[in-house]
Amino acid sequence: MRSIYTIILLVLSNTFMTLAWYGHLKFKEMKWSQHLPIITVILISWGIAFFEYMLQVPANRLGFKEYGGPFTLLQLKIIQEVITLVVFVGFSLLLFKTETFRLNHLIGFVFLILAVYFIFKK
Questions:
Q1: pLDDT classification of 112: cutoffs 50, 70, 90
Q2: What sections of the protein cross the membrane (predicted)?
Q3: What is the pLDDT of residues 26-57, one digit of tens each?
Q4: pLDDT value at position 32?
Q5: Radius of gyration over every alpha carbon of the chain, rounded to an integer in angstroms
């Protein structure tokens, strides 16, 4: 059960991270934010990223073997990276209509899945 909670928290955390890192690129489409100075954009992104950390830290503690979780540190990292890319692809396809998902992207994901396999292989 800890593994499921860990993954759910990582997905939520990465959703906030993606919003913090890339959401501001859509600000130009919102009238209220078109002329914000970069420091304001940074502060807004930090505010969003705060929620990422509020979810990421407990996810890592819950999932890490030395805290009673099922995952090693390397396994946690590779899970987080795959979740990050999956969330990012969904985000970019939904919000950035100019982005396309191509065959080379799919091949890259296959290699990431292979990385997960090899990281978890005993």
A1: confident
A2: 6-24, 36-55, 75-96, 103-120
A3: 877 777 777 889 899 899 999 999 999 999 99
A4: 79
A5: 17
Task: Report d(CA 30, CA 55) in Å as an integer.
Answer: 28
- Token duo for residue 19: 């919003």
CB-based contact 92:46 (threshold 8 Å):
no
d(CA 100, CA 97): 8
Angstrom distances, CA of residue 37 to CA of 6, 24, 26, 34, 43: 37, 12, 15, 9, 10
* Distance separating alpha carbons of residues 12 and 52, to the nearest angstrom: 8
* DSSP code string of 57-71: HHHHHHHBGGGT-SB
Q: Is 106 exposed, middle or buried (0-12, 13-18, 19+ CB in 10 A)?
A: exposed
Q: What's the residue count for the chain? A: 122
Q: Are 7 and 39 in contact (CB under 8 A)?
A: no
Q: Find, among 53, 121, 104, 114, the residue nearest to 82 by Cα.
A: 114
